[in-house]
Amino acid sequence: MSNRFEKPGLGFLDLAVSRLKKAKTFLDEVDRIIDWAPIEKLLKRKLRRNRDAVGNPAYPALGMFKVLLLQRWYNLSDQAMDDALADRISFRRFAGFSFEYDTPDSTTICRFRNHLMERGLDQKLFDLLGRQLQGHGVIIKQGAIVDASIITSSRRPKKVEVVEAREEGDNEEPSYRVTTSYSDDVEASWTIKAKRPYYGYKLHMATDAEHGFIIGGHVTPANRSDTKELMAVVEESGILKGSMVLADKGYASAENRASLERAGITDGIMYKAARGRELSSAEKLMNRVISGLRGKVERAFGTLKRDYGFQRARYLGCAKVKLEFLLNAMAFNLKKAALMVG
Is residue 77 located within the same domain as residue 212? Predict the structure, then answer.
């Protein structure tokens, strides 16, 4: 009978596997450039998990966090991740799970991910890893590019109308209240983009202008205006005073330009023509320059959607979709850094 994994340590089988010839992968580079000790310390301090839900010894928190990263890099569901851990040598080696013990199942993976969100550790881990990458000189926060993109809901929208009778009194006919809902994803909303309707969320995100690493972002219902979210993205991204923020016309407003000025940040928002006022030659030139630089954030969105499966949310609600974004962003940044410095 197999045992639960209780603590890291090499057994006979681990020693035999370690002697096998293996090709280097980006996972080895991630391990080389990241100091996992402060991350493990944070997880242990905040989670304090010695036993799981049924009283068995809990899997090491750092190993579980690495499992969540593997999930993102390989775009695996909880069940597919469970299956992969059972027979992928590189996965076990990266997560630090002994070959002589069982690996976490899909329920354990899901529960651990929710623990991170409930304790606010998703944002703390993102910031901690970001500081390490800044220390390596790959993330440079001297300029940022802000944009937004639609993430469709994991639920298919279906209009449901519930009619409820309301008693008015003994001598009066009852009146009726009609409640309309579209799915059980109650925080998602409808929006129109390029004349097409979408149901879901909007990801507001910033990348650094130098290399295109993700430095911050958050999630709102899809109908939230881009304009109103600019300064929140700027603040959570830790953009330095004296830096420039680049953004498209959707962020052009007198309020945003004034807010950037008050924060000591250079305004790189594209100019938008108004009725009766055409853009000057200088404003058109500036728009072309900014448009040419915005490709980094657009490529980051493309990678998250194409390679990480984030064109559609896996979970329900803004908090869980933000958790999904931050896990994707950490995986995106780590792989990009590993390929850059490897």
Answer: no
